[in-house]
């Protein structure tokens, strides 16, 4: 049996903020941002648009695509879902209710369980494996939606040039289905291997200190600026290059393949230089990596499913292509998936 991605969708807010726009309010330049990160712009959600709104849009796109592929109407597909799993760092509400439940309700997925997972930018990679395992352990389960969504614009300190330039908002979703195809080997399909890792010793490298149970808000607190993401850029950079190279090497070794067998690597889009450094270390040609960071910046858990949807809708993924996702993020978490398209 295989776990196949049968449809994809994405939602990116229309409001595009260019590097030049940012340079008007903070001490930065388009040249610095491009040369240090590869980022040219980011999309920022309008006020009133939250994680569940973007997630719902991406989920509906995925269901519509599956419906066009002859899998039933979007409503039937929603009702056929066994699980909705949403990777996010920026849920609608702090902890309760899970944002996935808001999506479940609006989608009409009345037979699905729904939960959020907090694996930061690695959320989609984690979510895909967890959803696949959920389908595999019970013969009656067949379909799940895996969504990665972040509205990082809400937790970025827009006065801090060290982080403000890096992030953007968006959502990506994939519909997965358990099928009778073989999971690996000749003619194999779907998710063939995943590595999920964590290194909590780096927890403070990416952190939102306020608002959780460690530093809760108390009545009478005066908040100068809202809770925001603090980052040790150098620590994350060093970790990220090591994480990417390690995961790529391990996935290849465990699967007994070489980089030549992989059609495309779809990395988490945090910084083009991180991806280039990892590629250089491993001797992998740059064009093996798909990068769309110039348009979207780092959309955290959304970056890989947005990239998958872009490639898919542009007809750039061929049936049978071996794809590798690889990513890292707060936690610190890291990992990767091997998927036969
Ligand atoms: N515009 C202009 N100058 C900036 C700047 C900006 N947006 N941000 C930092 N600088 C300045 C610094 O103040 C510093 O100036 P100084 O030399 O006068 O002190 C100089 O540029 C170099 O800063 P540095 O932090 O050494 O730059 P860097 O080359 O390490 O790049 C990051 C910084 C953040 C781009 C890089 O460390 C990085 O990408 N880290 C990983 C971040 C990440 O991926 N986070 C998400 C993980 S999911």
List the helices and strands and how they pair.
Blueprint: E1 2-11, E2 16-18, H1 19-23, H2 30-37, E3 41-43, H3 51-68, H4 74-79, E4 81-87, H5 99-107, E5 113-117, H6 123-136, E6 143-151, H7 161-164, E7 169-179, E8 190-198, E9 206-207, E10 230-231, H8 233-255, E11 264-267, H9 272-282, H10 293-296, H11 303-313, E12 322-329, E13 333-340
Parallel strand pairs: 4-5, 4-6, 11-12
Antiparallel strand pairs: 1-7, 2-3, 6-7, 8-13, 9-10, 12-13
Helix pairs in contact: 3-5, 8-9
The structure holds coenzyme A.
What does the model show?
- A five-stranded mixed beta sheet has the order 1-7-6-4-5, sandwiched between helices. A four-stranded mixed beta sheet has the order 8-13-12-11, sandwiched between helices. A two-stranded antiparallel sheet has the order 2-3.
- It has helices at residues 19-23, 30-37, 51-68, 74-79, 99-107, 123-136, 161-164, 233-255, 272-282, 293-296, 303-313, and strands spanning 2-11, 16-18, 41-43, 81-87, 113-117, 143-151, 169-179, 190-198, 206-207, 230-231, 264-267, 322-329, 333-340.
- The protein starts with a strand and ends with a strand.
- Helix 3 (51-68) packs across helix 5 and helix 8 (233-255) crosses helix 9.
- It has two domains: 2-179, Thiolase/Chalcone synthase (Peroxisomal Thiolase, Chain A, domain 1); 190-340, Peroxisomal Thiolase, Chain A, domain 1.
- The chain is α/β, with parallel strands linked by helices and 341 residues long.
- The protein is globular.
- Residues 28, 32-33, 36-37, 121, 161-162, 165-166, 231, 233-234, 236-237, 240, 270-271, 298, 329 line the site of coenzyme A.
- The site of coenzyme A has 20 residues, from helix 2, helix 7 and helix 8.
